[in-house]
Amino acid sequence: MSQGQTRAMENLQLPILLLALGVLLQLCSCSPPADTAVCTNGTSNCTVTNTYGSYTDRTICHAANITYPRTEEELVAAVAAATSAKRKLKVATKHAHSVPKLSCPGGHEGTIISTARLNRTVYIDAAKRLITVESGMVLRDFIAAAAAAGLALPNAPYFYGLSIGGLLATGAHGSSLWGKGGAVHEYVVGIRIVTPASASRGFAMVRELGVDDSDLDAAKVSLGVLGVISQVTFALEPLFKRSLTFVKRDDSDFADQVAQWGLLHEFADLTWHPREGKVMYRQDDRVDVSTPGNGLSDLLIFRASPTEMLITARAAEEMMQMKNVTDTARCAAANLQASTLEQQAYGFTNDGVSFTGYPVVGYQHRIQASGTCINSPEDGLLTSCAWDPRINGSFYYNSGFSVPLSKASALVADMQKIRDLNPDKFCTGIDGRLGMVIRYVKASSAYLGKPEDCVDLDVIYYRSHAYGISRLYADVVDEIEQMALNKYGGVPHWGKNRDFAFDGAIAKYPNANKFLLVKDRYDPDGLFSSEWSDQVLDINGSPNIIKKGCAIEGLCVCSHDSHCAPEQGYFCRPGKVYREARVCSFIKE
Q1: 227 touches 194 (CB < 8 A)
Q2: One-character DSSP codes across 156-183
Q3: Are 66 and 81 in contact (CB under 8 A)?
Q4: Which DSSP letter does residue 375 get?
Q5: In the predicted model, what is the mean pLDDT of residues 9-20?
Q6: 58 three-class SS
Q7: Nearest 10 degrees: Cα torsion 194, 196, 201, 202
Q8: Helix (H) or strand (E) holding 475
Q9: I need a surface site. Which of 60, 400, 545, 589 has the fewest CB within 10 A?
């Protein structure tokens, strides 16, 4: 190691240790995320973004005004006012966790409708196992309300800060191939949605959709282009318990196991740690409610952390991107953090306080999701969620994409081939702490739901705050994702990916035309549509943005060196294993 590399490693040691220590801390207070819509004149002259403070294209989204309806009547009035004025409309949720521009109406004259105050339980029928809630209710409160009535939502995303309307719009899911599967929308049996209407009908109307209405299959996953969901009715199950154990194994049979594991355990998932050559298998099943245990999920990555520590950790991440830091140092840092997470059972506890060993047994509402960093009163940003844009903390890309279950083994084998060429790349090319999470989702009747049973890959990786600055080993994720989407017929997660991944995606949904017919009936003037949604739905234009550095930003697949960063040493080259891929690779002089 050169003298410069030695100094760089010494400078990294303290930040790395602080980051590892931070995942051990469980804090009781936190500054909750700020409102993602900000207006300079009351509720007028507004900008809107997501919880990360940046859309994939880094643009600032403007809107003429925002409204906060508290009742369905006020929601109808808001839609009617915008429709009569022919203004564009978009819905913003309380925490806005979607990565793409789902909440941006475009231009400067649109209206934002926030569902943050539409957050109540409307009706519970415990005997029939039905619950109706308003669309702005966050998943945390929904799960709690159901549990209080002795009911459980069988599957949900692992983060409970999503709103009911938002998670339905993007097809958000947990992990299961059993029963109705891992997607939340599979448990929806009714929706009330407010859409534009003619002047004779007051410019807005409420449409009530039940299981006997085929339009429900359009509204269950809609990208927010049909209207504003007011209320949702779910068919739930009696409250049950789960028993969870994480088992680490060698990845030598990963390709053989990936398609089978989800059939063996109801709530199975897997996390692949490529550099380590290991897979963490989540063995997670229902057990009798008499089984002892009061376990709790309080995942470390969703807890509050000291803001100063988060800033230090980000500085360490940025130092890791420097070319004078060795891969050995990068892998040592990633392994330390991953080991710390594993030792703390990722935040699961046996009794809500401490982890004493596996299995962790607990009721469904305590095990299925977490996100305590959103819960607490304001503390002046002494602590925060890791991704809070008000601090210079974590800033990353989050790509989700699904591949048919029948092709999962072949995809894994190809990913291992890429890994075997240079395992150390995976310490930095993806977030080495978290690995690559693989969940299971069943085929859906929803027009924009999963076309067939699939595995969903979820990967987080470094993002620079500045446009066009390449992340180290960017070609790793880019080749894997292009391979998954193109060679193996995968589809992007509607709420988690970069622009290029949506190019041509709608053609992979057999019922896309049915969805577009419903869209044309509900909103013939396209008031709830935007430039982004029209591109993604292949109505007008392409989601690709072709310009200098676009491939570095995930806005395009490179076809020219200028789409990468040649001045930084990154050039457009074929993939190492999937040769049809075009990725930005670092070329040494």
Answers
A1: yes
A2: --SBTTSBHHHHHHTT-B---SSTT-SB
A3: no
A4: T
A5: 48
A6: coil
A7: 90
A8: helix 474-482
A9: 589
Helix (H) or strand (E) holding 153: none
Q: Are 435 and 273 in contact (CB under 8 A)?
A: yes
Least confident of 79-83, 93-97, 114-118, 497-501: 93-97
How far apart, in Å, are the Cα atoms of 454 and each of 43, 183, 499, 504, 568?
Answer: 43, 11, 22, 19, 38
As a whole number of angstroms, the distance between CA 184 and CA 34 comes to 26
pLDDT at 5: 44
User: CA-CA distance, 454 to 435, in Å (whole number)?
Assistant: 19
| Phi, psi (deg, nearest 5) at residue 188 | -85, 130
Beta strand spans in 198-253 (E): 204-210, 228-235, 237-238, 241-250
Q: Where are the alpha helices (DSSP H) in 291-393?
A: 307-320, 327-343, 364-367
Residue 13: pLDDT band (50, 70, 90) is low
- Look up residue 233 and give its amino acid: T
DSSP string, 417-467: HHHHH-GGGHHHHTTTTT-EEEEEE---SSTTS-SSSEEEEEEEEE--SST
**pLDDT tens per residue, range 435-488:** 999 999 999 999 999 999 999 999 999 999 999 999 999 999 999 999 999 999
Cis peptide before 100 (omega within 30 of 0): no
Q: Is 188 helix (H, G, I), strand (E, B) or coil?
A: strand
pLDDT digit string, tens, across residues 542-558: 999 999 999 999 999 99
Amino acid, res. 512? A
**For position 375, what pLDDT does the model report?**
87
Mean pLDDT, range 377-381, rounded to an integer: 88
Instruction: Tell me how far apart the alpha carbons of residues 36 and 95 are, in angstroms, rounded to a whole number.
Output: 7
Q: How many helices (DSSP H) and strands (DSSP E) are in the chain?
A: 14, 26
Give the pLDDT confidence of 387-399 residue by residue, as tens digits: 999 999 999 999 9
pLDDT at position 282, please?
A: 98
Angstrom distance (rounded) from CA 171 to CA 155: 12
* Res 529 pLDDT > 90: yes
d(CA 366, CA 140): 10
Q: How far is it, in rounded angstroms, from Cα 508 to Cα 502?
A: 11
pLDDT above 90 covers what percent of the chain? Answer: 90
Tokens representing 143? 């799960």
User: What is the CB-side half-sphere exposure of residue 126 using CA atoms within 13 A?
Assistant: 9
302: amino acid identity, one letter: F
The number of beta carbons lying within 10 Å of the beta carbon of residue 246 is 18
